[in-house]
Amino acid sequence: MDAFLVARKLFGNDDDSNDKKVCPAPDESGPTIVPLFGDMYFHTFAMILAGACGVVSLLITLFACSQHAFHYSNPVQQRQVIRVLFLIPYVSFFSFLIVWLESAGPYLEESLDFGCAFALAAFLLLLCDYVMAQPDGFDALFGEGALKRGQYTPDSPPWLKRTWYSVLQYIPSAAIIWLATIISNAVGTYCATSNSPHFAHIWITVFKLIVTIIAIMAVLRFEKRMKSKFAEQRVMLKFFGFKGIIGLNVLQVTIINLLVSSDTVKPTSHLSYENIVSALPSLILACEMPIFAVLLLFAFPVGPYKNRKPSAGPFKAVVDALNYTDILSAFFRGPMRLVREQQKHLDRADSIALIPSGPPQYEEAMTYQERRY
User: For residues 225 and 195, what is the distance between their CA atoms, to the nearest angstrom?
Assistant: First the structure.
């Protein structure tokens, strides 16, 4: 009878219940680590390779950014382009840190999404300006006849508000995810080896999945809605050129973790458990950064901006790109004031005045746009 009750987990299962609240310790046993080449261990080799790839990625990115900075003829668009390009050295830097400080890897991994959140917001701003550059761009964003009727109120169509707040939420959400991961790892409640609801890992993972999907889908819906305005912009190449970085990293980390958890991949005489689960995914990502840097170099060419007189010097271009107060202020002012005022704040004399003292005539606005492009 007792055996029956135990089998039904009515009695005698206290140990099983307690086990669910204890983080399973990873099997870090393995052979003694020996040098990979001569006196060089894998950790040293990985640091050198990640650092070298980071330097190459940085040089390519600096070349791309300098092209836009020295031909800074369209500040609103090029400011966002430089911000997106900044994601390459950002990811390279943190990938190198994770390889170098393997034990700190769990505390640094979520930094990648935080950087991507700002790049995604800058990318949406860039898409908005692509639309506004069209003769009917204002009407496309704010409704048919909006420019002619002089609708310069802070209100905007509900779909546009949903799009912008869906993307903006990714910034604080990524910060919360990073902070929650750091705290839960520090106090021992994260437990990456378990999906039990007793640990933070599963909840952080689910939250991260939800907020990421919301942000990405918002951009994709915006691109689909305004597809006719992006005929010459190769928007999807631009989008996947930087968003693919994080997606590929998630895929690589998932595959490696599955292989390790299933004992398909085990520690060897050259690779410790920490080398495999922490350093190896970041090393692979660091090696991919030069490829993405070249891809973004072609996705965001400087050619369209070379035939116009620069409105500011390269130093101003870098300062504008590093000044994220415009994006952060959208949380308080509203995203549509940001879309309208971004051109006003950057003093684009050759652009349509988005917040004039009074509504312009439609024909005058078209003249501005034709002169600009």
Answer: 38
Is residue 282 within 8 A of residue 95, CB to CB? The reply is yes
> Under 8 Å CB-to-CB from 199, ≥6 apart: which residues?
23, 184, 189, 190, 191
Looking at the DSSP bridge assignments, the partners of residue 37 are 40
Residue 366 has pLDDT above 90, yes or no: no
- Look up residue 136 and give its two tokens: 């009917």
Instruction: State which amino acid sits at residue 79.
Output: R
Query: Is residue 371 over pLDDT 60?
Result: no
Map out the domains of the chain as residue ranges.
38-135+154-372
Evaluate whether 72 touches 312 at the Cβ level (below 8 Å): yes
Give the number of other Cβ atoms within 10 Å of residue 177's Cβ.
Answer: 21
Residues pairing with 40 in the sheet: 37
Q: Is the pTM of this model over 0.70?
A: yes
Please check the confidence at residue 37 and state whether its pLDDT lies above 60: yes
State which fold the 38-135+154-372 domain adopts: Rhopdopsin 7-helix transmembrane proteins (1.20.1070)
